Amino acid sequence: MFALGIPRPFKYVRVKTLEEALDALEEGRPLAGGQSLLPMLRLRIPFESLVDINELDLDFIRREGNTYTIGALTRHNEIASNVPLLRGVAITIADLQVRNRGTIGGSLANADPSANYYPALIVLGAEVKAVSKKGSRRIKVKELYDNPYTTTLREGELITEVSVKEPRDAKLYFKVIKKGGSAYPIAVLALLKESNGKLHASIGGVFPKPILLEGESKEELVKSIEGYNEKPLSDHHMTGEGRIKLVKDLINTFDEDYREIHLIEGRKINWKTGIGVMATGEIKIRVKVNGKLIEDTVEPRTLLLDFLRRNGFVEVKRGCDEGKCGACTVILNGVSVKSCLVLAIQAVGLDIKTIRGLDASHLTRSFVRNYASQCGYCTHGFLMVSYDYLKNVDPEASDETLRYSVKNICRCTGYINIIRAIKEAGKDEISG
Ligand SMILES: Cc1cc2nc3c(=O)[nH]c(=O)nc-3n(C[C@H](O)[C@H](O)[C@H](O)COP(=O)(O)OP(=O)(O)OC[C@H]3O[C@@H](n4cnc5c(N)ncnc54)[C@H](O)[C@@H]3O)c2cc1C
Ligand code: FES
Ligand code: FES
């Protein structure tokens, strides 16, 4: 097993009902998509017990009148596909793989100052339902965020749903600035423009808390930002001054060249297995890879990436080891995920495929034809995410959907040939 960044040991419980979850949460922490929690585990932050809530019936989207109620376990890609109001917010999160696992409830509970949902949900006046053994309560999203990585949730409380109203006489504009790849944004702007011209803006990534500003014009909002009495965030990505300048530009141009994103509606991602699991130490698991059951002894902290490589699936590569490069991507239950951001024990009951178990000759042929690989280290990961993208997102590989989806890193070939190969493979697939 890889020596650095191995999570500390913890107890793993996969619960099947909300009651079981609330009992287990008395001593544990919820594990939803794991797309923030797994990187935290890799930093060796100690957690005694993780309560995997992925079996709960919290993956739903309901619409009544102009109100959407979204289950906490709804994945970012499902929101992008099925909630037009939040499409631009969800599709600009990370990349296809992170969006297949990451959930709206996990994102809000994680309270990253640069997270996509906070500014949009604040400006829309959304609220969450939080449930514990003591009962349930509703919390405005604006009041849920306390400080970076801290919320006002109480011990043992679980977010179960988010409710958000589609505004009747106003339009939501959403923009993010990123530094490339699947990184978090540096600045996020959600701006609601009422038909009478009044503007409500919420800004993330610039101050320790997402802020809400109101005004009659862009100039008024820019002035409020200049006079805002809080020290801006500053890190190796950008200085505080740079962030303020960026967000002022975002406000000044929010309605210029603003394009709605089009996606196929009705997308559903299924992570349910019907199987409860509990492990404190070593446990023998059987996982289906490329159609065969592979048996191995793992600990709860063993990553799916390590499980696959030590069982001979060495086409799955270790790259950045922090969830960014995509070299470790595999197909899990029909969609792409980063195997360094999934625990091996979570794959019990799910179906894993690498290139050896997929009919993806249209892709491999196109990669060879277009010289889309040099050393080949990143190629398997690219094939995996491209397979998911062409099959489940956009067989026509439009520039618009491609740039939000395939964000793996290649250190030698560059991206022109890879993009060409994906587009050609899409055409091959469509023409049969
Ligand atoms: C490479 C990369 C790039 C990313 N880029 C972006 C980006 O551009 N924009 C963005 O917004 N996000 C980004 N993310 C984060 C991503 O959106 C995560 O999905 C999200 O932050 C956490 O959701 P999760 O379901 O994975 O939660 P988990 O990782 O499972 O959990 C996160 C935290 O929330 C708690 N938790 C989870 N569910 C609940 C619940 N229902 N109730 C109470 N507590 C709960 C957990 O205990 C944990 O503390 C990125 C992540 C990665 C790895
Ligand atoms: S994303 Fe998993 S190794 Fe880089
Ligand atoms: S071909 Fe070498 S890293 Fe991509």
TrEMBL record:
FAD-binding PCMH-type domain boundaries:
5-169
* Superkingdom classification of source: Archaea
- What this protein is called in its record is Xanthine dehydrogenase
**CDD domains from the entry?**
fer2 (cd00207)
| Residue ranges of the TM segments | none
Keywords noted in UniProt:
2Fe-2S, Iron, Iron-sulfur, Metal-binding, Oxidoreductase
Would the keyword Repeat be found if you checked this record's keyword annotation?
Answer: no
Q: Which organism is it from?
A: Stygiolobus caldivivus
